Amino acid sequence: HGVGYLLRSAGKTVSLNDTQFSSLLGRVVEARSHSAWEATDDVVGKAINDAVGQAIQGAFDFWYRAKPSVGAGLAPALLRDLFSRIAVAPAGALLGGLVILASNLNSLFLVDNGWTRENLLPAFDWTGGEDRARAAWEGYLWNPRLARELFAALMVRFLETAAHYEKLTKH
Length: 171
Fold this sequence. Notes:
Elements: H1 2-10, H2 19-32, H3 43-48, H4 51-65, H5 77-87, H6 95-103, H7 105-111, H8 113-120, H9 130-142, H10 148-161
């Protein structure tokens, strides 16, 4: 967990031109990509204390410092690739990172609508895996922001979530 914490802290201060930061983020994700996620009643709490969750929060702190603008696309490419890897990971893998991605859903959607529709929104679908859907919804509901177009894109999955309400916990 120490490396994740260091990367989270570094995301607030490292130079925006530092490619080593993105490389280290990728290495943490790679190292943890086969680690199982143990079930918990506090998905968000677990994610913010998970090495991958902390590393991805550091990536978002780094990304927000670059002041991404609406419609500009998800950049730099190293972060886009890292976020893609987390968003489409197999069931049970990298869920701490998915919670953090989902908590930033609105920003991701506004900056790169196409990437978000293709990579992140499918994680909210309960038929694609209950663990992934629960992680995505818990993360999103921890920090709910909703643009009109995002709501339209999420509506069917949102309505399906009503049938799974009892699986959601605090958030």
